[in-house]
């Protein structure tokens, strides 16, 4: 297991990115796109529905747990964490939400509501009793809640012992689900508003994989990984979306497969995936995920109603359009905004340091 630590210390941690991880993210996003474009598609045979694509979000959650753990090594203050997350998520989200709103205005005007659009800009409209503009947005509130959890662990000074914090959280979540008959109304409210409790084990697995990659093999972490996997399987029918489309056995096999992929990744056995096309998909995956569902389905349905085009050709063309728009948002909004906010924070810290140094120098001179 020493090769795991050396691989990441010499490669991933210093490089700041792992192309294989980007490739997995890109494939997960593409799987979700295929699912949304083939599910309940009247022009396709039900047998053609790519049901397993819905589990792409499970892979997203594991990747988030891993990458957030990595990014914490670069954080010196909780404010930096907030600014970094804000810069990474909100500018691109706002632009994608506006594009989606424009399509709703054109294709579904009777359901357009400006107040709903504005509340959606918070990324957590469910907390205000408002539906998401796009069906894919439901995962954003889960990511948001996970970031709050990470922030609370960081501010409590427990980040170096995050495994214990994660285990205690996991035990609390499992207990909450297990004893649900005693508080049905509260349970129904919480699983709807705080959906992180249905998916936390996947984030925890990502965290544990990062710990294994950076610290090497620990028996404790391996045991925690087993507990996390079992907890994820237990939560299959407790509020996630997969239970409506795949069986519990299929879910189990897919979750185990994702964990095997991560194990191979941290051992350096997934380098063959670091192909430019897949890395590109991973780079634009956030914007692709945000843009594709509502907009893409409306374009597909409109084209199929007005033309006799082949459904496979239409889906392929719409996916290419999604990728192009996602590239534009990533290239001209997401990356520049993220860099600007991060650099702005660094400039502010540097200016404060210079000011303090100057004040100290002036104080010494005055005392002299």
How does this structure look, described?
- The protein is mostly helical.
- Helix content is 73%, strand content 0%.
- It has one domain.
- The chain contains 14 helices and no strands.
- α3 (56-71) packs across α9 (200-215).
- The longest helix has 57 residues, at 311-367.
Brief description of this entry?
This protein is mainly alpha-helical and about 375 residues long. It is built from 14 helices and no strands.
Keywords:
mainly alpha, 14 helices, disordered N terminus
Tally the beta strands: 0
Gap between N and C termini: 59 Å
Count of helical segments? 14
Mean pLDDT: 89
Shape: globular
Which radius of gyration do the C-alpha atoms yield?
Answer: 22 Å
The helix-strand sequence is HHHHHHHHHHHHHH
Q: Tell me the count of domains.
A: 1
From the structure provided, what is the oligomeric state, counting identical versus distinct chains? single chain
Strand content: under 5%
As a percent range, the share of helical residues equals: over 70%
Low-confidence stretches: 1-16
Structural class: mainly alpha
Please summarize the sheet with the most strands: none
Can you lay out the helices and strands and say which pair or pack?
Layout: H1 2-15, H2 19-38, H3 56-71, H4 78-107, H5 114-120, H6 138-155, H7 162-178, H8 184-193, H9 200-215, H10 219-234, H11 248-266, H12 276-283, H13 285-306, H14 311-367
């Amino acid at each position: 297991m020493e090769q795991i630590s050396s691989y990441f210390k010499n490669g991933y941690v210093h490089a700041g990115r792992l192309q294989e991880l980007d490739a997995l993210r890109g494939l997960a996003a593409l799987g979700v796109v295929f699912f949304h474009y083939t599910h309940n598609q009247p022009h396709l045979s039900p047998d053609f529905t790519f049901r397993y694509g819905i589990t792409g979000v499970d892979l997203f959650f594991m990747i988030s747990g891993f990458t957030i753990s990595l990014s914490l090594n670069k954080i010196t203050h909780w404010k930096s964490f907030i600014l970094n997350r804000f810069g990474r998520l909100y500018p691109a989200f706002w632009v994608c939400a506006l594009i989606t709103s424009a399509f709703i205005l054109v294709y579904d005007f009777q359901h357009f509501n400006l107040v709903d659009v504005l509340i959606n800009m918070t990324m957590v409209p469910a907390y205000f009793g408002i539906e998401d503009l796009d069906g894919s947005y439901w995962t954003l509130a889960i990511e948001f809640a996970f970031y709050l959890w990470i922030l609370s662990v960081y501010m409590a000074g427990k980040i170096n012992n995050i495994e214990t914090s994660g285990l205690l959280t996991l035990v609390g979540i499992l207990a909450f689900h297990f004893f649900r008959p005693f508080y049905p109304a509260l349970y129904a409210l919480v699983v709807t508003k705080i959906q992180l409790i249905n998916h936390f084990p996947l984030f925890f697995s990502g965290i544990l994989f990062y710990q294994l990659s950076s610290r090497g093999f620990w028996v404790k972490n391996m045991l925690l990984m087993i507990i996390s996997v079992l907890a994820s399987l237990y939560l299959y029918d407790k509020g996630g979306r997969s239970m409506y489309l795949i069986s519990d056995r299929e879910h189990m096999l897919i979750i185990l497969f994702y964990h095997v992929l991560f194990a191979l990744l941290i051992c350096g056995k997934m380098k063959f995936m670091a192909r430019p096309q897949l890395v590109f998909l991973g780079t634009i995956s956030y914007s692709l995920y945000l843009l594709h569902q509502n907009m893409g389905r409306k374009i597909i349905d409109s084209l199929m109603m007005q033309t006799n085009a082949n459904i496979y050709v239409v889906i392929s063309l719409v996916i290419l359009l999604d990728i192009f728009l996602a590239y534009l948002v990533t290239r001209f909004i997401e990356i520049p905004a993220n860099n600007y906010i991060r650099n702005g924070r660094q400039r502010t810290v540097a200016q404060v340091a210079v000011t303090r140094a100057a004040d100290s120098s002036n104080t010494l001179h005055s005392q002299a």
